[in-house]
Amino acid sequence: MTLPAHQPDATPAIAPPKANPASPAGAAPRPYTRGAQLPELLKQRILILDGAMGTMIQRYKLGETEYRGTRFAAFERDVKGNNELLSLTQPQIISEIHEKYLAAGSDIIETNTFGATRVAQGDYRMEDLAAEMNLESARLARAACDKYSTPEQPRFVAGAIGPTPKTASISPDVNDPGARNTSFDELRDTYYEQAKALLDGGVDLFLVETIFDTLNAKAALFALDELFEDSGERLPIMISGTVTDASGRILSGQTVEAFWNSLRHAKPLTFGLNCALGAALMRPYIAELAKLCDCYVSCYPNAGLPNPMSDTGFDETPDVTSALLKEFADAGLVNIAGGCCGTTPEHIAAIAQSLKTVKPRRWPQHYRNAA
Ligand SMILES: [Zn+2]
């Protein structure tokens, strides 16, 4: 058997890196064009994020008819459960939920766009509405924030970018580990479309969240980078992963330290964890990130572990979740706190109240000069 010959002549020449006058290698990133107050505010206090959108939508007990509204009354398939569609068919409900979270004390609210990507909306055959959903959702959140903003407490809209139901690095087929149902390029395109519409709708920052596949997140961050190049804008980015089991790994297999090292090149404003496990089980991983990250740390857990018997699907009451987050804050672990699945405006009000006088986490000593 002969080994294939090494063929240096067949290797394409590697082009020298293109000079980029906007951001020369090693230079500081361009200043933020929106949300520019955020770094300064984060030095002063712990900022409060909102709670779950889905949990609040559940409270309205909407049926198929309400999800459809008049515009989609004759749509070819069922759309109940497509929460992002409500930004088009029941915008008053989405606005009301945003305002409840702002009244509860949220400094930052998330757009109703977790699943508003072409890839995710494909499940409802509504992929062609993805851009419109993002645009309208951003406008709703923008209007709510503008209503509640004061010079003492400015409010910010975070464009929520979810993981999509397809993953770039995990096989959907147990018998074929190499199988994939999406690609980096498809995800990058779908995220670009989402992010551009969010930008056009007036968001102040982006939140790439509930990450369980690092490669999906890389596609989202790549798309944001392209969007910033194309638009001349630069917005703060929050990155938030989800540790799905007690081994302390995200679903695509990384520990939180590996996860941080995979994505820190994006120079996020914040890095942290949300969703699964709930605060109590999330603590060791937040503590690890608090030591590792040369950026601010965010934490917005579920209201404990899921309980199908409970009304919201989760058990923790506002006093429990807020007491857990208060302990995180007292230990100097967090800069932004809020809630994920099962949390409500009552949870957010309790969290805002209990963290009010607690000093924000400071960056680890060896990074401090860069803060
Ligand atoms: Zn969640």
Features of the shown structure:
371 residues; globular; binds zinc ion; alpha/beta
What does this protein structure show overall?
This protein is of the alpha/beta class. It is 38% helix and 10% strand. It has 13 helices and eight strands. The protein has an eight-stranded parallel sheet with strand order 1-8-7-6-5-4-3-2. Strand 4 (205-211), helix 9 and strand 5 form a beta-alpha-beta unit. Helix 7 (130-148) packs parallel to helix 8 (184-201) and helix 12 (318-330) runs parallel beside helix 13 (345-355). The radius of gyration is 21 Å and the shape is globular. The termini are far apart. The protein binds zinc ion. Zinc ion is lined by residues 275, 302, 340-341.
- Taken from the alpha-carbon principal axes, the silhouette is globular
Oligomer: single chain
For the termini, the CA-CA separation is: 58 Å
> H/E element string?
HEHHHHEHHEHEHEHEHEHEH
Physical arrangement of strands within the biggest beta sheet: 1-8-7-6-5-4-3-2
| Low-confidence segments | 1-17, 19-24
Tell me the Rg in angstroms. 21 Å
Helix segment tally = 13
Percent of residues in β-strands? 5-15%
Report the structural category. alpha/beta
Largest sheet: 8 strands, parallel
The residue-averaged pLDDT reads 91
Helix content: 25-40%
SS elements, strand count: 8
Instruction: Catalogue the ligands.
Output: zinc ion
